[in-house]
Amino acid sequence: MIQSLAALMTVFLLAGPQDPPLPTAQLEDVEVMARARAERAREFVGEVAAPARGRGLGRWLNVCPGIANLERAVAQPIVDRLAARAGELGIEVEGPGCEANIIVVFTADAGDLTRALVQAEPRVFRGQGGGIDRGGAALRAFQTGERPVRWWSLSVPINSETGQRAVRVPGDRSGGTVDPRVADLLQCNPADCVGAGVPVVQSHGGASRLNSQIVDQIYKSIVIVDIDAVAGLNADQLGDYLAMVTLAQVDLEADTVPFDTVLNLFEDPRGVTGLTEWDWSYLQALYSSTSRRRSAGAQATAVAAIIARTPPPEPEE
């Protein structure tokens, strides 16, 4: 049985050797800092987390990153950086020859290409079942505006005990083939581009009122990059940015300026060198959380609590 969040917090606080009591003034300072960090964690998760409609925060089980429309010598260090970050989180990184499920497309006409892809093959971007994507408004935001990088992720509810999916997905009833040009760009088989990467067997089973054996698995992420807008960035910067927006479900329209995050890369390309301590705490919390809470809000609260318990790095001297 999964422990409640309160129980987990108690275990965390009681674990390990007990230090001598702190002076009252120092103890108050520590408590104030802890409360401030906890509040900041909740604000960050609330701003950036963008699960599918009515679902919890999704995670990857295995990834196969691929980059299109970029010279191999330039693309390789970027995809290697992304894959390394995934591996550090315990995500299985598939080997050469795998079918890409994180597809990063570089183009000089990001907005036009995005709209053309969605209009040509809307089934690739919108699920016919529930709990797969973020809905029409989010898809319109994905297509509009001048953005250096835009992304769209798809997730599916799965049975955590069997690994089998719990809902129908695009392709179950009317998959069909997609335009070969679209399939080539998105690095998928034209006959299996719509539902590629999802578990294929419908599952059944019971769950408690508060906890669910159904969790959410990200199975596809499509990223469109304006090649002119990323000129001057190095592979580590761009690889870390792509890792943040693909390994987690991040709100494309999030206001991240108040936070120390790689998501501010294009606002401060010289100051942001890669994933920050805050970003890494978030990703580690997302992938270390054992929460199977039914409510997306409850799950986000559990992730925020883990972030708040992660001590910040020691300041450099």
Structural overview:
By secondary structure, the protein is an alpha/beta fold. The chain has a domain at 48-254. The chain is built from ten helices and six strands; from the N terminus they run H-H-E-E-H-E-E-H-H-H-E-H-E-H-H-H. It has helices spanning 5-14, 24-48, 72-88, 110-120, 122-125, 136-143, 180-185, 235-247, 277-288, 296-309; strands at 62-63, 65-68, 92-93, 102-107, 149-159, 214-226. Strands 2-4-6-5 form a four-stranded mixed β-sheet, with helices on both faces. The chain has a two-stranded parallel sheet with strand order 1-3.
List keywords for this structure.
6 strands; four-stranded mixed sheet; alpha/beta; 12% strand; globular; 317 residues; 10 helices
Q: Which helices and strands appear, and what pairs or packs with what?
A:
Elements: H1 5-14, H2 24-48, E1 62-63, E2 65-68, H3 72-88, E3 92-93, E4 102-107, H4 110-120, H5 122-125, H6 136-143, E5 149-159, H7 180-185, E6 214-226, H8 235-247, H9 277-288, H10 296-309
Parallel strand pairs: 1-3, 2-4, 4-6
Antiparallel strand pairs: 5-6
Helix pairs in contact: 2-10, 3-8, 9-10
Mean pLDDT: 76
The helix fraction, in percent, is 25-40%
Separate helix tally: 10
By secondary-structure content and strand pairing, the structural class works out as alpha/beta
Beta-strand content estimate = 5-15%
- How would a crystallographer describe the biggest sheet? 4 strands, mixed
- The total strand number stands at 6
Silhouette: globular
Q: Secondary-structure element sequence?
A: HHEEHEEHHHEHEHHH
| Radius of gyration from CA coordinates | 20 Å
Protein name: DUF2927 domain-containing protein
Organism: Brevundimonas basaltis
